[in-house]
Specification:
The chain has about 575 residues and is mostly helical. Among the domains are: about 100 residues, Serine Threonine Protein Phosphatase 5, Tetratricopeptide repeat, CATH 1.25.40; about 60 residues, no CATH class; about 100 residues; about 110 residues, no CATH class. A hairpin with a 4-residue loop joins strand 4 and strand 5.
Length: about 575
């Protein structure tokens, strides 16, 4: 009977057709006496692209006197694939309370897939316990779906524990775990798992290498990135457009714009708009503003209509390169383009562009006049510009707006404290710090890391834990003496303490990026570039020190901070002191 229904279902293109077929099946007694074709009808209805069919399937289910498990599964599956997957979880929980039919492995699987899409990890944990109680835990599909939920929701320890306990692993499991670790800021583990996957005989596919490339990008280490891309080429995985896009992004985040551009030029598959946008963004974040705009124009000439992301990438390129007039002109062009509508990120880029160039009143006017409600990020951007130019009045105005919006970011308090400290307003500094304590806002500690022969060395400000601490501190003293001969004067204005000059200089001298660079000078060859990653924005004093170190020691230093790359060479920085 179910086989006879399927050809009829395939002819249903609209909800009206579905209702006509339902009337026929009811008249024939199929709905009442033949559960199998009824379930097949419900499954088609719940997953059909016809408008309103999913809601109609749920309504049909509610009128079935004695639903079977397959009926239940059909509606859950449709809800899990819908725009509101959380509804599938609600439907499952309600069914457990009111239905006489029992869930099977498919019921749990569909509901867990909904949990994965909705990032509903607490609900997934409850279903996990039910899976064990119902005796379905040996089901490989269920285990894989559970793993996917935990990995996507950031419950990486639970995901890893389940992964290690699984008796049978397919590619899907490896992919979910590698991607979860990469997205969860555990890139080293992701790459270790990628290596283990190959060692035990599994062949990585496009999805696998995308996760691994993401891990390489996080680490910013070209050794792993180049090795990964060589493997991709050897397996012909560079024929996949998405893999190439992620590889371009990875090389860019490692600071190798030329290498990224080579991947872009040598693509075996057709470029998409995403490919162009990625390349423009890579050029922009690495300070190649003019080249980014040339690529933006070339993209248009080759028939690709710029979208919101294209304009944002180009605006960010202007921002990173300090190309204010270019950015203003580009923003005006976007406003005249009927195919795109500026969003909050575009306005944020303009506020940043104007603010960094000292045009604070213009930046404020943009925030004050935009047609959408300004968000926290816009006011934080303005506050950062106020810190750069020491504008207390505007900073206090931005801080009040942030307080009204309920911001509790440690960065807001620190920026305002920095501004007060620069003007020696120590009572105001203490007031801000007391407010932080009152609101239990904790400052995110600064840290940096450097890769030496495949080993990641992490440093925090004033680090006392590294095994080579003594030679590192000796190297720092040597660095300070040598750069002072070239005119270095410590920028102590932003040290948040009312203490003496010597204490302030010591506080600056042991910032994490300086420790990492000192270790790099000790550990790397005399010609190797020193690459450092930092979790926060590099401070003005460290930026000046890196320029002088690159000149005095004749070494290229690349620092990737929270917002961009700084390539220091011969006493200059790629950001042109505009960051």
């Amino acid at each position: 009977m179910a086989a006879a229904v399927e050809p009829l279902l395939q002819k249903c293109a609209t909800l009206s057709h579905i209702k006509q077929l339902q009337a026929h099946l009811i008249t024939a007694g199929v709905f009442e006496f033949y559960p199998s074709p009824r379930s097949k009808f419900l499954e088609f209805c719940a997953t059909s692209s016809a408008a309103g069919s999913l809601l109609y399937a749920a309504d049909i289910f509610r009128h079935i006197a004695f639903p079977v498990t397959n009926d239940w599964n059909a509606v859950i599956r449709g809800l899990a694939q819908s725009h509101q997957p959380a509804d599938a979880v609600i439907f499952y929980r309600r069914g457990l309370r009111v239905l006489t039919c029992k869930p099977d492995a498919l019921t749990c699987s569909f509901t867990l897939k909904a949990c994965a899409r909705a990032l509903a990890c607490n609900e997934a944990i409850q279903i996990h316990s039910q899976v064990v109680r119902y005796g379905f835990i040996a089901d490989v599909l269920l285990q894989t779906t559970l793993l996917d939920v935990y990995a996507k929701s950031g419950y990486l320890d639970d995901a890893r524990r389940l992964f290690d306990e699984m008796s049978k692993l397919d590619v899907t499991c490896w992919n979910a775990m590698i991607a979860g670790l990469a997205q969860g800021n555990r890139p080293n583990e992701a790459l270790q798992l990628f290596t283990r996957m190959r060692d035990v005989g599994f062949k990585p596919n496009a999805i696998t290498v995308i996760g691994a490339l993401s891990a390489c990008a996080q680490l910013g280490t070209i050794r792993e990135g180049e090795s990964m891309y060589n493997y991709i080429k050897s397996q012909n995985l560079d024929a996949n457009e998405q893999v190439c896009n992620v590889a371009i992004d990875m090389f860019g985040k490692c600071g190798y714009v030329g290498r990224a551009y080579r991947v872009f030029n040598d693509m075996k598959c057709p470029k998409t708009l995403v490919t162009w946008n990625t390349m423009i963004m890579v050029m922009g974040t690495n300070g190649e503003g003019l080249e980014a705009l040339k690529l933006f124009d070339q993209m248009d000439k080759e028939g690709f209509q710029p979208d919101n992301v294209s304009y944002l990438a180009a605006l960010c390129a202007c921002n990173h390169a300090g190309m204010v007039e270019h950015g203003i002109k580009l923003f005006e062009t976007m406003a005249e383009d009927d195919s795109v509508i500026p969003n909050i990120k575009h306005y944020g880029a303009m506020v940043d562009l104007l603010g960094r160039s000292g045009r604070l009143n213009e930046a404020y006017n943009i925030i004050d006049s935009i047609p959408i409600k300004p968000d926290i990020v816009l006011w934080q951007t303005l506050l950062g510009a106020c810190k750069t130019y020491g504008n207390i009045e505007m900073a206090e105005k931005a801080s009040r707006k942030l307080a009204e919006l309920g911001s509790s970011s440690d960065g807001d308090f620190v920026l305002l404290s920095n501004i007060y400290a620069a003007h020696h307003r120590w009572k105001d500094v203490r007031r801000v710090r007391d407010s932080m304590k009152e609101k239990e806002v904790k400052k995110v500690p600064g840290f940096s890391y450097i890769d030496i022969d495949g080993v990641i060395h992490k440093f925090v400000n004033g680090d006392q834990s590294h095994s080579d601490l003594q030679p590192i501190y000796q190297k720092l003293d040597e660095i300070k003496c040598r750069i002072m001969e070239h005119g270095y004067v410590p920028e102590t204005d932003y040290v948040l303490h009312d203490i003496g000059t010597e204490e302030k200089q010591n506080a600056l001298n042991y910032h994490s990026e300086k420790l990492a660079v000192a270790f790099g000078l000790l550990s790397l060859g005399t010609t190797s570039p020193i690459r450092v990653n930092k979790n926060l924005r590099i401070c003005g004093d460290c930026h000046e020190v890196m320029k002088l170190v690159s000149k005095v020691y004749e070494r290229e230093i690349i620092v990737r901070d929270r917002t961009r790359f700084h390539r220091f060479k011969d006493g200059l920085c790629s950001c042109k002191d505009y960051w």
